[in-house]
Design brief:
Elements lengths: L3 H6 L20 H7 L4 H6 L1 H9 L10 E2 L8 H4 L3 E4 L3 E4 L6 H5 L6 H4 L1 H14 L5 E6 L1 H10 L7 H9 L1 H25 L3 E6 L7 H20 L5 E5 L6 H7 L3 E3 L6 H8 L4 E6 L8 H15 L5 E5 L9 H13 L7
Parallel strand pairs: 1-4, 4-5, 5-6, 6-7, 7-8, 8-9
Antiparallel strand pairs: 2-3
Length: about 350
């Protein structure tokens, strides 16, 4: 197996900077768009055969150092009692958003091995297909992000309802996040048992919090999950967006690798996190929509700021955007792998 990615997670020397991309399987790929003409996103996620097919699509086209399970971070919500669907062009929509402490107390604490067994079957199928060529990353959503979706009913620009509950009924908030933390910790453990070789915790919306609020309202629950993953011996990646002001707190919450988005230079992010942790990132995904030379110059800047220090995993600051050229993604991966050959750093 090519263990470049796993070695970087542990800050061990590698022969080239490892690269994978969030949303490396998805709408920018023609094969995926064709599949979506016949199947909904939830249909794909719930079918191990289809989810395996989509997980492997980018691996067959791009020189990547890891595969990531094709799934959705909201999947635990429905069996817990928060059904949802995806509205075309608008993203996830929660059928009955949580609006009270009573709603929260009705939520079930599920066994992911039973309620999300199809995800675990996908993992086993992907591992079999990969035949140990590259490692497989599993993932789940962090409590703050899951709570935000469940309370807001979908995406939000200000998270007013979420913060209203957080500040107005902190006891109910912590009960909610503890339920999510319990389920997600068990879910990631089950994914590891099924065969994933690294686990990423997505806290997509946690950048809405300042450092003090993160420490009070999010950190205890995120830490519970990452502490559980740490006991498995499998490396964990802790990722959020808009997190430049809370990277130190995210490091304290846990994770062998901390993700940084494009809003902060990589070397500044790494200094905030501490060089005793690995870092993932952090090219702006919109650069892939522009001219090739501009994209590669952006990648060179990220790699220069990493400075060849062990523990850098190249990625975007968030997921690949729809409309991105597959040629650009392929060129970027090749460029990252060969960069040391012509770097002046």
């Amino acid at each position: 197996m090519t263990d470049r990615f796993l070695r970087a997670c542990r800050r061990k020397p590698v022969d080239a900077t490892p690269v994978w991309f969030m949303r490396q399987a998805g709408r920018y790929m023609a094969e995926y768009r064709q599949l979506r003409q016949r199947h909904s996103l939830l249909d794909i996620c719930s079918s191990p055969e289809l989810a395996t097919q989509v997980t492997l699509q980018p691996i067959r086209k791009i020189d990547l150092d890891a595969a990531i399970l094709f799934s959705d971070l909201l999947l635990p919500l429905a069996p817990m009692g928060v059904p949802f669907d995806f509205v075309r062009g608008e993203g996830p929509a929660i059928e009955s958003p949580l609006r009270s402490a009573e709603d929260i107390d009705k939520l079930r604490t599920i066994d992911p091995r039973e309620e999300l067994g199809h995800v675990l079957q996908t993992i086993r199928m992907v591992r079999s297909e990969l035949a140990d060529r590259i490692p497989l990353i599993g993932f789940a959503g962090a409590p703050f992000t899951l709570a935000s979706y469940a309370i807001e009913g979908g995406h939000s620009s200000n998270f007013a309802r979420t913060k209203g509950l957080m500040y107005g009924d902190s006891a109910a908030w912590h009960r909610l996040c503890d339920k999510f933390a319990t389920v997600v910790a068990d879910y990631l453990t089950a994914q590891i048992e099924a065969g994933v070789q690294a686990a990423q915790l997505f806290d997509s919306w946690v950048g809405a919090l300042n450092a003090a609020d993160y420490r009070e309202f999010a950190m205890p629950h995120t830490k519970k999950i990452l502490d559980a993953v740490a006991t498995t011996g499998v490396p964990s990646i802790h990722f959020g967006t808009g997190t430049a002001t809370i990277l130190h707190e995210m490091r304290e919450a846990g994770g062998d690798v901390i993700g940084a988005d494009w809003r902060i230079p990589l070397n500044e992010a790494w200094a905030c996190i501490g060089f005793d942790r690995a870092i993932q990132g952090n090219l702006d995904p919109t650069l892939l929509l522009g001219p090739l030379d501009r994209m590669l110059a952006g990648a060179a800047a990220v790699l220069d700021l990493a400075g060849g220090r062990p523990g850098h995993i190249f990625n975007l600051g968030h997921g690949i955007l729809p409309g991105t050229s597959l040629d650009h993604v392929q060129a970027l991966a090749r460029y990252v792998h060969t960069y040391r050959q012509h770097s002046t750093v």
